[in-house]
DNA sequence: GCAAAAGTGTTAGACCTACACCCATGC
DNA sequence: GCATGGGTGTAGGTCTAACACTTTTGC
C-alpha cells in the first residue's frame, strides 16, 4: 500500500486523464476530432476525446486505448505522442483532475461513432475553433492551441507530415499537408527538392498514381527517418524578434 | 467530491510527483543536482530532487516550490519548464506514482543543504552519469537522458543558454555554455556574429569585464527574445540519416 | 615584447528563392 | 491541341565555415 509521508492532507492522490488532440487533413483544412459531451460537467459542449488512466496502464497505453475507442482505429497505426500535462486545480469542476494531452496524427479518418459518454462526434476545422476562447469544454481551447503550434513546428524539424498521408502518397499530397497546416502556399519545385534530398524521408515505391488530369506522379512511402535533416523552415513567420513566442524543443536518440 | 464513473476499481486516483532536473555549468562541465535518498525506497541511492504535488497546487507551482526547497533559490529567478510525464506502473515500488519532470537551468548555484528526506546533495557531471543504466534511483536515468537532449536541442532554437550565465556576462561566457553542453568547440568569431545578429538576444550593458589576461570583453544582459532566430544549429551531429532519433518540438505564442 | 582573449574582415562554397521551362497524361 | 499537375534546370542573392588578421589588456 501507498504510505504517505508528512502531513497527509497535503498531497492527496489525484485523478489522471488523457486527452487526445487527433488531427487529420480533410477538405483542404486541418481538422480535429471533437465529441459532444453526454455527461456533466459541460454537458452538451464540444470537447476533446479522452478518459481516465486505468490501473496498471501507462499514459501512452491509455492514450492508445482511448484512440482506439474513439476512432475505431488501431492506435498502433497512428502517430501518437505526449504533449504535456495540464494541472490547473480548477480546470475540472468534479475535483482535482490532471490531464496529460496527447497529439495524434493520421490520414483522413472515418467519422467515429459516439462513445459511451459522448452524444456525438465530428471533425472540426481547427482554425474556426481558435481565436475565441471558451469554445471548448474545460481548458481544451488551450490544449488545442498548444497542439496546433506543436504540429506546425514539428513539420519543420521532423517527418511527421507523412503521418497525415495514407500510403502510398505523392509529393503533391505531402506538400498539401504542409500548405494546409502552415496556411501558406509553397513552391512545388523547391518543396520537391527539399523533401527528396532529406535522406530516408521518402522511399519511392516504383509505382505511379494517375490523376484525373495531368502527369502521373511517383508514389512514395515513409522512410525510416524521424528527424528532417536539413529542417524545412517556415520562412514567413520569422519577422520580428520572436519575443512573443516561447519554444520548447525536445529530441530523443 | 469526486464521483467515479464506470467500474470504480478501473481508474483509481494516482499520486503525482514532480522531479527536477536542475542543470548548471560549473568547472567546465554540465552538472546536475542530485540528492542521496534518506528514505526507502532506494535508500542511500542518488536521485533527482522532487516531491509530491500538493492539494491546490499546479505542477508548475510544485516544481517551483521544490526548487526553492532544494536549492534555496527563488524559483521565479530560474528558467523552469515542464519536460514530460513518466508513468510506468512499476516505476515506484510504493505504488502507482506518476511523475512530471521539470527542467531547471541556472548559473552556477550554491551547493544546497540536504533537505528533510535527503541525506546529502551534490552536483554531478552529467556525462559521467549516462552510459550506464541503473546509476540513479527509479527511472531517473531516463529522465536525465531526456533532459540532456532537450537542453542540447533548446540551445539551437532558443535563447536559454543565457539562463546559464550570471548577468552580466560576456560572449565568451555564453560560448562556453554552448561548448560544454554540446561537447564541441566553436569558432569564436562566427559564434559572436551569430549571437549578436540574433535580434533581442543580447543587450550590451555598456560596461566591460577585465580578465586576468587578455583584452576586456563587452558585457551583456539577456534580451527579451526567447526564440533564437535564425537558429544556431549544431552541425557536428547531423551525420547519418537521423533514423535513430525522434524529435518532438513545441512552441507557444 | 609577449601571451591571451576579444573582436573584425574576407573569401570560397553551400544553400535557397524565384521562376523559366519541359514532361506526361486525359480529354 | 490544351489544360493540368509532375518534374528539371538555373541565375542571383544570401548565408556560413574557415581562417587570416587586428585590438586591447596584464605582465
Mind summarizing the main beta sheet of chain A? 7 strands, mixed
Radius of gyration of chain A: 20 Å
Number of helices of chain A: 5
Q: Please give the most extensive interface between any two protein chains, plus how many residues each contributes.
A: A-B, 72 and 71 residues
Share of helical residues of chain A: 10-25%
* Anisotropy-based shape of chain A: elongated
Which ranges of chain A are low-confidence, i.e. pLDDT below 50, for 5 or more consecutive residues?
1-6, 236-253
| CATH-scheme architecture of the largest domain in chain A | Alpha-Beta Complex
Order of helix and strand elements from N to C terminus of chain A: EEEEHEEEHHHHEEE
User: N-to-C terminal Cα separation of chain A, in Å?
Assistant: 36 Å
Amino acid at each position: 500500500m501507498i504510505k504517505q509521508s508528512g502531513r497527509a492532507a497535503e498531497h492527496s492522490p489525484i485523478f489522471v486523464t488523457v486527452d487526445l488532440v487527433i488531427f487529420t487533413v480533410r477538405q483542404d483544412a486541418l481538422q480535429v476530432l471533437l465529441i459532444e459531451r453526454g455527461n456533466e460537467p459541460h454537458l452538451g459542449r464540444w470537447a476533446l476525446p479522452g478518459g481516465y488512466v486505468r490501473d496498471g496502464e501507462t499514459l501512452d497505453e491509455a492514450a492508445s486505448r482511448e484512440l482506439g475507442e474513439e476512432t475505431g482505429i488501431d492506435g498502433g497505426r497512428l502517430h501518437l505522442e505526449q504533449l504535456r500535462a495540464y494541472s490547473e486545480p480548477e480546470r475540472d469542476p468534479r475535483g482535482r483532475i490532471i490531464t496529460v494531452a496527447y497529439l495524434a496524427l493520421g490520414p483522413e479518418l472515418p467519422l467515429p461513432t459516439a462513445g459511451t459518454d459522448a452524444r456525438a462526434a465530428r471533425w472540426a476545422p481547427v482554425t474556426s475553433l481558435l481565436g475565441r476562447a471558451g469554445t471548448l469544454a474545460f481548458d481544451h481551447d488551450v490544449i488545442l492551441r498548444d497542439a496546433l503550434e506543436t504540429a506546425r513546428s514539428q513539420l519543420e524539424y521532423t517527418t511527421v507530415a507523412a503521418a497525415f498521408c495514407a500510403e502510398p502518397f505523392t509529393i503533391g499530397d505531402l506538400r498539401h499537408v504542409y500548405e494546409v497546416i502552415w496556411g501558406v502556399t509553397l513552391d512545388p519545385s523547391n518543396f520537391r527538392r527539399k523533401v527528396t534530398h532529406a535522406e530516408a524521408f521518402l522511399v519511392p515505391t516504383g509505382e505511379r498514381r494517375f490523376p484525373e488530369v495531368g502527369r502521373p506522379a511517383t508514389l512514395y512511402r515513409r522512410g525510416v527517418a524521424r528527424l528532417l535533416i536539413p529542417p524545412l523552415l517556415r520562412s514567413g513567420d520569422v519577422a520580428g524578434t520572436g519575443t512573443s513566442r516561447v519554444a520548447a524543443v525536445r529530441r530523443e536518440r
